[in-house]
Amino acid sequence: MLKRNKFLTLFFFISVATIAAIGAYGLITLHTTPTTTTLQGTIEAPEVDIAGKLTGRVTKLWVSEGERVACGDTLTTIYSPETEAQYTQAHSMAEAAMAQSRKIEGGTRSEIVSSAREMWIAAKSQLQLAEQTYGRIQRLWLDSVVSLQRKEEAEALYLSAKANERAAHQNYLMAHKGAQKEDIQSAVWVAEAAEGTTEQVEAILADTFLQSPTDGIVADIYTTVGELVGPGTPIISIVRLSECYVVLNVREDLMPYFQLGESFRGRVPAIGDEYLDWQIYYISPLGSYATWRTQPGKDSYDMRTFEIRARPKHPTRPLYPGMSVIVELPL
Fold first, then answer.
1. What is the pLDDT of residues 206-224, one digit of tens each?
2. Fewer Cβ in 10 A, N or C end of the chain?
3. Residue 263: which CATH number?
4. Which of 244, 248, 245, 247 is nearest to 37 (CA)?
5. What average pLDDT does range 73-95 have in this prediction?
6. Which residues lie below 8 Å from residue 231, measured CB to CB, with a gap of 6+?
7. Is 39 contained in some domain?
8. What is the pTM of this model?
9. Does 8 reside within a domain?
């Protein structure tokens, strides 16, 4: 019985000593270890979608995904027989208009009248063809055979031909009455308008060889060889890695650590946990897309989250979109 009491007493003192040691260790740890919070951001980069201004088929892709390109490099080739035909037509009309202008300035009255009449006849023929084409396209559109865009294109060509016919008719009437100062000026304007149309088509044809407007890396290719693309259709996406930045979502109670124009340190696990200095260039002016957090206590309130963007000040290794950035802050 005495041994049992001694054993219980010893066990009691050992238990008390153990509990005291654990409590002391906890107090020491609480007072010596700083409390921190960790924020995780994501690296992003500007992305440029490359699109053309003409309708045609992709005949060649000169780059592949992941390839680095420079500004001015050819990315793809688009073949558009319709646009080339429009260029031929516009070029021919420009040549005819300039010839007409030269005739008015230095030719005889009979030559002026004859040339103006021929221009009017040609314009009437084009108007008749455009009107017939527009009628057929409109009927096909009512039957849901062709798209609304094709119908609008035919209507635009018809209206353009109608305007050209009226202009040609007025030129003929003026030439018939005699070449005067106004006639000469009108012919010059028609020639300039025709030349402008040619330049416009030339600008569209320039997209036959689509070039990169910036340096970067090809992120995505949305089309394949042989596929039909339209104006404004994204074909290739390029990421500008030289303009990478990190996006952090920061609670408003941590905003004192982040001020516009100031810097903070964050490590990037993807490059060996290397620490980089990041300079803040953007803070969301409103707590939009907020994460709400209710604070307990008597004076409780809801905290919001603000978006912060920062650029690396002195990057030592390439950074890619999707990499994480870890920021540790004391509380």
1. 677 888 889 999 999 998 8
2. N
3. 2.40.30.170
4. 248
5. 77
6. 51, 52, 53, 54, 55
7. yes
8. 0.55
9. no
